[in-house]
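Box 4.2: Ligand-aware structure prediction
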Amino acid sequence: MFQKLGRSIAKRRLILSLPPVARDVMKDGLTYLPLERMASLNAELERMVAQDVPGDIAEFGMALGGSAIVLAKSRGKRRFLGFDVFGRIPPPTDDDGADAHSRFKVIAEGKSTGIRDGEYYGYVDDLFGRVVSSFEKYGLRVDNQSIILRKGLFQETFSPSESDRFRLVHIDCDWYDPVFFCLTSVSRCMSPGGVVIVDDYNDYEGCRNAVDKVLAEDASLLLERTLPHAVIRKRAS
Ligand SMILES: C[S@@+](CC[C@H](N)C(=O)[O-])C[C@H]1O[C@@H](n2cnc3c(N)ncnc32)[C@H](O)[C@@H]1O
């Protein structure tokens, strides 16, 4: 009984730590992020602001746009960049485990359910239009200047320029290939002290292997914690 009470107090604390926008996207069924990950994402956003780390905010893997809305709301005077195919998730590869392949089979057979039994985002006809409308509902205009959405494979839509700098990047794209591509690509444009969060580190073997491989080869990145998701810091020097 005391354990149950303790858990419910801890849950209440996490809910209270969230800004209203994060509570609302969860209530509206726009995000797959469970409460612990949303609270951790928000805490890292607040830390970047408190430490005045320079740079934009980006997300790779938006689905219905829930976590992206939270990130875009906190962009201040900087930009938010969101990347997604805005359609069916591309398949896993031989670098992924049975977990990813069986999940993809369910999706490909048209049997995936969505958030709280709603429509699965990968079966929505105009997902890009749906996400833009959700942004608008939250007072965010996709103007391609301060809020930029790029539709297509990350590998084709993201090629950072010399001047690109990020303070926080959220990588939420499940399988080995996209996670490996995103983490290696953003590493060179993270501000010192900036943070990369990889959502699926504990969910999919391929994602975890991709992160571990990049970290083993890139000494500028430090894995700070792995719960409730991977939090990777760009070293100051
Ligand atoms: C788990 S969902 C993102 C969840 C979202 N962040 C939320 O708040 O619920 C993963 C997304 O990544 C996208 N994705 C995965 N691999 C991709 C790739 N190579 N290029 C573009 N989008 C990709 C999928 O289509 C999907 O929309």
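In the box above, the bound molecule is S-adenosylmethionine. The mean pLDDT is 96.
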